[in-house]
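debug: dumping io for the single-chain case to check the tokenizer round-trip. Nothing else runs in this session.
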Amino acid sequence: MKDKIMDRWSTYEPFYVVLGDKKVADIIITNHARSRWIDRVESEKTGFEDICAFLWDRLKKEQVKPYYKNEKDVYVVEEDLVMVAEFSIIDNEFDIAGNPLHKMIIVTFLGRMSEVIELRDLKSYYSWLRHSRRMTLIKNSRKRK
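debug: decoded output
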């Protein structure tokens, strides 16, 4: 994502976008995230480049926010699309001040809050999921005995 030219002739600065305490300079989409994008977000523009371009544009427009204030993994894009992301430091990439740059690894897309009402409160949604899975496991273990 190096697309910013500095004032000096023929000098490029690694371009990054600040997201919380991270300086995002690259986006990586996992295969799982791509399949979830196709299932839950959009079925037309499904290439890795399409998804990266969409997210990079939203990052530059500051439309990617943490889901909860203290949450470091779950983010909301355009106040609707919920995604899970991890960050890692890019080796040998620094900004002008010498601070490390990060790559944003998109783990999965959970869906749009406008379509899936349960995504509006993730904590209760995940506790419900854990409970329903636990109950399914208990039922299945009863059948085996």
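debug: round-trip ok. The longest strand covers residues 81-94.
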